[in-house]
């Protein structure tokens, strides 16, 4: 009985991950978690061939970027490549990663704060249902449980 339950839970979670269905922000970008408790978020979008990341509070309102810092990496664990991040009061900009690659971000609220890691697979294939790129897929995860 217990085994069956575990199998079912595993099945449901693998279905949910089979299709992206991500959380999107007020400007159509993808929401990243920049805190342990949902109080700070990043919204990442592509503009002029670069990633732009705005910092949003718990009400999804943009906050001015001052003491916050961000580092970005791509590539695999054995050979990570550091990306150059530029910052202004509206957020951070960084080069796009190759399609299908992971972007790994480490966000710090202040220089002394604990870094929060956020990961994103830059999957640029088009979702058949919502026609967005998969990394910005608007489909609700519930739809996947067909
Ligand atoms: Zn979709």
Structure commentary:
With about 150 residues, the chain is mainly beta. It has one domain (about 1-145): Sandwich (Immunoglobulin-like). Helix content is about 10%, strand content about 35%. The strands form 2 sheets. Strands 1-2-3-7-6 form a 5-stranded antiparallel β-sheet, with no helix packed on it. The chain has a 4-stranded antiparallel β-sheet with strand order 5-4-8-9, with no helix packed on it. A hairpin with a 7-residue loop joins strand 8 (about 100-110) and strand 9 (about 115-120). The protein starts with a helix and ends in a 25-residue tail after the last strand.
Keywords:
4-stranded antiparallel sheet, binds zinc ion, 1 helix, 5-stranded antiparallel sheet, single chain, Immunoglobulin-like, about 150 residues, mainly beta
Ligand kinds: zinc ion
Strand content: 25-35%
* Poorly predicted runs: 10-18
**What percent of the residues sit in helical stretches (DSSP H or I)?**
10-25%
Order of helices and strands: HEEEEEEEEE
Number of domains: 1
Measure the end-to-end span: 24 Å
CATH architecture tag? Sandwich
Q: Give the structural class.
A: mainly beta
Can you tell me the CATH class? Mainly Beta
Blueprint (SSEs and pairs):
Layout: H1 2-18, E1 30-33, E2 40-47, E3 50-57, E4 69-74, E5 81-83, E6 86-88, E7 91-95, E8 102-108, E9 116-121
Antiparallel strand pairs: 1-2, 2-3, 3-7, 4-5, 4-8, 6-7, 8-9
